[in-house]
Amino acid sequence: MPTPSLIDRIAAIKATNPDNLMARHFDPDYFAALPADRQTRLTRIIASGTEIPDSNMGAYAMAPDDYDTFAPMLDAMIRDFHAIPADTPISQPKDWDTGSQICDLGAIDPRLREVSMRVRVARNVASFPLPGAMDKADRIAFETMAATAFEALAEHPDFGGKYLSITPGSPHQIDDAEYTRRVAAHQMFKDMSNDRYLQVAGISNDWPHGRGMYISQAEDFLVWVGEEDHLRIMAMQTGGDLNALFARLHDGLTRLSALLPAFAVSDKYGAIASCPTNLGAGMRASLHIKLPKLTQAGQDLTRVTSAAKSLGLAVRGAGGEHSDAGQDGLVDISPSARLGVSEMQIMQRLYDGVAALWAMESAL
Ligand code: ARG
Prior knowledge:
- There is one protein chain.
- The protein is an alpha+beta fold.
- Among the domains are: 4-82, Transferase Creatine Kinase, Chain A, domain 1 (Orthogonal Bundle); 286-364.
- It has helices spanning 3-16, 21-25, 28-33, 36-45, 47-51, 66-69, 71-82, 136-154, 176-184, 196-200, 242-259, 302-310, 343-363; strands at residues 116-123, 162-165, 212-215, 221-225, 231-238, 265-266, 270-271, 283-290, 313-317, 330-335.
- Arginine (ARG) binds at residues 48, 55-58, 197, 228, 275, 277, 321.
C-alpha cells in the first residue's frame, strides 16, 4: 500500500501549492480509513494533482459513480471550486427555456454582431468507463457507436455534414493535412498527448485511437469524440444572438441523446464529467470579443480580469486554456459557474456580463 509516502507527498504539496484543491481537501484520516481497493481507486483519481503540484483542481473521475463513492473528499473540492457554501446542498437545476429572455448582443451595439460565440456541453455515456479508465478497445467501440449516431443525425436536413475520424484505419479517417487544418480553424481538438494533465490521468492514452469529430454541413454544430469527456457537444456562431446559439445546441443535443445510450447524469452533480470543474450543466459558453482599451491592446489582462470576476466571468486569451490575449485585445469571456446554475442562467450571465464589459470599454 503506497499510503505513507502518498500522504507525506500530499502534505508537502499542500504547503507549497495552496491552490491545489486536491491537496487542500485531502484528509489523511479519511484516506487511511478506506478499504484497500478504494484507496487504490482514489489514488488514481487524484494522480494528476499529486504528480502535477501546480494543478488547480487536481483530480479526474474514472467512473461516473466516483463522485458518489468519494463524496467526502470530492464534494469538498467541488464546493470550493464552484463556490457552494457548506450549508447549501449541491444540486443541479435544469432550464433550457432560453427563449424566455432575449439575449441579443447586436441589439446593444451593432458592432457586437461580429463576436464569435461558442457554447459546449460535456457528456459521458453511462455504460462506458470515463476516458481516463478506457482501454483502446473501449475507445474504438465508443467511437464506432458514436459514428453510427452521427450518420443518422446527418440525415436530418438541419444537420447534414459528416463524421471525421483520426483513428488509423477508420472508414471515416481524414489525413494529417485535414486534421491540421481543422485544428487551425478551432474546430478539432489539439494533440492530447502533449497535455500533461491528460497524460497523467490516462485520458490521452491510445492517442489518436477512438478520436474524431462530427461537423454539421453549416459547420455550426460540432461534436468532439474521445477528448477529455466522451463527447463535447458544441454550437458555434457569429452574430451576437445568444438565444439562437443556445437553441441550436439544445436541438442538436436532444437529437443526439435520442441516438445514443443514456448519458451519466445525477440530480446532485448534473452531467457527469471527467473533471470536477465541468460538473453541473457541463457547459462552457464563451465569446471572443475585442476589448483593446480595457486590455491595453492585449498587453495587460489585469483590469479586464478583475472587472470580469465581479461579473461572474472568467477571461482567457483567445487561443484557449492557458493562452494570452490576442492583438487588438481579443479575449475569451465565459461565465465561471457551472454547477448549481442552469443553462438559461449561464446564457443570461454571459449576456449581462458582456454588456457590462462593453459599456466599460466604450466609456474609455
Ligand atoms: N487538471 C487541471 C488542473 O487541475 C485542469 C483543470 C480544469 N481544466 C480542464 N480542462 N478540465 O488544474
